[in-house]
Amino acid sequence: MIKTRICDILDIKYPVIQGGMAWVADAELASSISNAGGLGLIAAGNAPADWVENEILKAKEMTDKTFGVNVMLLSPFVEDVVDVVVKHKIKVVTTGAGNPGKFMDRFKSIDARVIPVVPSVALARRMEAIGVSAVIAEGMESGGHIGELTTMSIVPQVVDAINIPVIAAGGIADGRGFAAALALGASGVQMGTRFVASDECTIVTSYKQAIITAKDRDTVVTGRATGHPVRILKNKLAREFIKLEANGATKEELERFGEGRLRMAAREGDLQNGSIMAGQIAGLIKDVKPVKEIIEDIIAEAEETIRKINGIIED
Ligand code: TUI
Q1: How far does residue 145's CA lie from ligand 1's centre (Å)?
Q2: Is the pLDDT of residue 93 over 90?
Q3: CA distance 160 to 121
Q4: What structural domains and CATH numbers belong to the chain?
Q5: How close is the Cα of 78 to the center of ligand 1, in Å?
Q6: What is the pTM of this model?
């Protein structure tokens, strides 16, 4: 049985946390992951606050376990989303794409556990100083909006810099990755792409198929010129975006070109013109299966991996 500090802090059985994933992580996915012993979260993304509230109400019907909300700090609706989080006394809030500092008092007023994604040691230190419960150290192997460091580099450096628990993210989809995260000093893992390829994920089947047929080099990072690099699967949109960037399109032009593209892929099923966000580990994922099986397989494989490693030590 693998039990770490984060299990007690979040009141969860397994130290497995679902990634934010705008337009993907709704009440159905989040509650299934919480029911399976991990921590599921509703991803606010760029959605209006009433969508988030509706998903919270649904999730409350679907699970009696802890679930959270992922707040995407670049959202035009972020203030209203925080109001909804506070109104419903959400127990766990993860944040992405920025510094949640200005909302900390509001989150603390409902005694929420706040867990920001950090792309650097400096931000991890600042987050510890303002009283977050843990941080997610996310490597650039991840899908969606990413930082610059790899998981292998950022996790141990953040672990050494702070005293609160660190959750490893980026490039983790099986028990070997989970065991590696523990070896780096992490208290748990956050996974996104692995949970996209699950039965309970409500997005179009073709997006899941794109993940399970992807090979190791099938993702590309677009949007470096906008200051918001985003990892997606290679497709027509990716090629067009890269061409625009090479031709010196402005930040505004690129942002306008990218608008609404994730929804187009995940919900409308346009896998050529939509943005298929996925991590580099997509190449390892070969099947769509129930969330419970994903989590239990990972834990069992991690235990086996750790036993194997122990077995190579000679006195
Ligand atoms: O947030 C994510 N992944 C996302 S958000 C998203 S929606 C979006 N689409 C286009 C452009 C931008 C966002 C799709 N995928 N992951 C967590 C994450 N957070 N990755 C990187 C960061 C991050 C970056 C800078 C966190 C904090 C940060 O701080 C800068 C500062 O203010 O100090």
Answers
A1: 5
A2: yes
A3: 9
A4: 9-203 (3.20.20.70), 215-277 (no CATH)
A5: 13
A6: 0.97
